[in-house]
Amino acid sequence: MHNNLKRVGASMAVIALSILVPQAAERGPAEHVVLVVWDGMRPDFITPQYCPTLYSLATNGTYFRRNHCVFVSTTQANGAALATGSNPGRNGIQANVDFRPEFNFLTTYASESLDSVRRGDLLTGGHYLTLPTLAETLQQAGISTVIAGSKPVALFHDRSTKKESEAAKKSVTLFEGKTIPRDVAASLAKVNEDKVFPTNITHPNIAQDNWTTRSLLRGLWKNGVPKYTLLWLSEPDKSQHENGIGSSNALLGIENSDKNLADVIKTLREKGVYEKTDIFIVSDHGFSTITAGPDIEKILKQQKFTAGKKLEDPQRGDVVFVGLGGSASFYVIERDEPVIRRLVEFLQTSDFTGVIFSRLPLEGTFPLEAVGYSSTNKNAPDVVISLRWNSNRNDHGAPGMITSAGGTRGKGTHASLSRYDMNNTLVAAGPSIKKGLISEVPSGNIDLAPTILHLLGVKPTKPMDGRVLHEALVAHKGPAPKVNVKKIEASRETGLFRWTQYLQFSEVNGTIYFDEGNGEPALK
User: Fold this and answer.
1) Splitting the chain (524 residues) into consecutive groups of 10 residues, what average pLDDT does each group show?
2) Can you tell me the distance from the alpha carbon of 208 to that of 226, in angstroms, rounded to the nearest whole number?
3) d(C-alpha 374, C-alpha 367), whole Å
4) Is residue 35 within 8 Å of 83, Cβ to Cβ?
5) Which of 39, 118, 152, 290 has the fewest Cβ atoms within 10 Å of its own Cβ atom?
6) 254-255-257 Cα angle (round to 5)
7) Cβ neighbours of residue 468 under 8 Å, at least 6 residues apart?
8) Which CATH architecture has domain 23-87+132-287+417-472?
9) Would you tell me how many other CB atoms lie within 10 Å of the CB of residue 136?
């Protein structure tokens, strides 16, 4: 089973090479591309009531009904996927929390923090993200960029302080109020009524998002709109985590992101470039409601594993546990095989596990490659699980309930292989984009970088896992590409139980998108 499924991962790597092959030019007339991220925005909340601007773009441009994030469905994994056009197994960022002994042998770390990024680049010679980003590729081609985000994940897109080319020197990164170059920050306070970036997170997180948007429109765009801009907004993610999907605060967060989007469009019009601009609105992931939040670390200790997020003196067979909300990763010190086998066998009888991916070829699991990870990556976990989910509705009527690695019932989370986490928002509009199209062709966050490079006439410098979304471009006159949907299964008899799990994915021209996955044990 594992050998067959590894071919799925291998095919992803082979297909990635094809994006470097020159293709017939289908460039649209756009001179600018703006990518706006609404963190955590589910597509079923695109309504004229709460987000009229986004709804108008979706109905008058192209709405990608079957868009996908990468697994794990977290901000940091998808921030890197949007930046590089590639899955976690190739871009170096596996989740929002990782474990690398060379970073810290005793505990886990937040992958998007400034300290982690700088430490990672220092230890890897500038390859914390192991692939070039969209912004870096554009700058290499002589195109300056602007990156602006309320969240630190924006740093992934253009993180270097060493600006060598003229395009790089003209480029700016704004992340959580900090800037590269550092001296730009003072000018951004001036366009925000002499106020620095708000440090307090609120629900909805209006102050931080509005400050970042004003900094972009009144500050970073003051002397003109660059060919490529990224704006990353924190809502509705912040409010959905705290107050739940469909809550009044979450809806206010959606409304505020829509107002900021409207301000972006207004500014583009005022600067006379709206008709020359392609706009993409994407979310990093979907969202689910917590139905249970087991303390998995405590449960592991009850099962006689030496486990924790932090270990006092790690020894062979100890387990570093990384809770990610709707998923979890397990790193076994020195990759002790008997411990890994016992861990997997326990997970296959638990009431919280949904799908198990293993570095070792174990019965009833899928290989890491089956979901975009790499077992040859020394930093990859030994075991990754997506937690169990269902389609029940929460108190606000939103479908998608999930077991979370910690968390409070009724609040929101993500990171699983639930269809409600994996199906995320993607809308596009502009002179290069077809009008009034509802695309049923699967697409993904990994497609944004190759598509934007194509629109700006720049070829990738390294292979990407994503593809150019030709079916949504006005220059493309051919039929929609063929879609193949596949489902793989794994099972195991263990004691009184029979464990079963599945993973469904869609394939378009060799590019693979993960639709959903789940599993459960049942008495024989």
Assistant:
1) 50 43 50 99 98 99 99 98 97 93 86 94 95 98 98 97 94 98 96 95 98 99 98 99 98 99 99 98 99 97 96 94 98 97 97 98 97 88 98 98 97 98 99 98 99 97 97 94 98 94 98 98 92
2) 23
3) 9
4) no
5) 118
6) 65
7) 19, 23, 26, 447, 450, 451, 454
8) 3-Layer(aba) Sandwich (3.40)
9) 21
| CA distances in angstroms from 368 to 132, 166, 383, 497, listed in the order given | 23, 41, 8, 24
Spatial CA neighbour of 327 closest among 373, 395, 391: 373
**In this structure, what token pair is assigned to residue 227?**
């060919």
Q: Which among 294, 292, 304, 374 has a CA at the least distance from the CA of 343?
A: 304
**Strand runs (DSSP E) across 114-266, as ranges?**
145-149, 172-175, 178-180, 228-233
- How far apart are alpha carbons 260 and 177 in whole angstroms? 17
Q: Give the Cα separation of 83 and 462 in Å (integer).
A: 13
Q: How many residues does the chain have?
A: 524
Tokens 């949504």 appear where? 472
CB atoms within 10 A of CB 289: 26
Residue with tokens 């998108």: 513
Token pair listed for 521 = 């044990």
In the prediction, which pLDDT does 24 show?
A: 34
Alpha-carbon span 241 to 243, nearest angstrom: 6
Query: What's the number of CA atoms in the CB half-sphere (13 Å) around residue 462?
Result: 17
Residue 407, Cβ neighbours under 10 Å: how many? Answer: 20
pTM for the whole thing?
0.94
Contacts of 428 by beta carbon, 8 Å cutoff, 6+ apart: 57, 61, 62, 64, 278, 279, 280, 281, 469, 472
The confidence score (pLDDT) of residue 28 equals 58
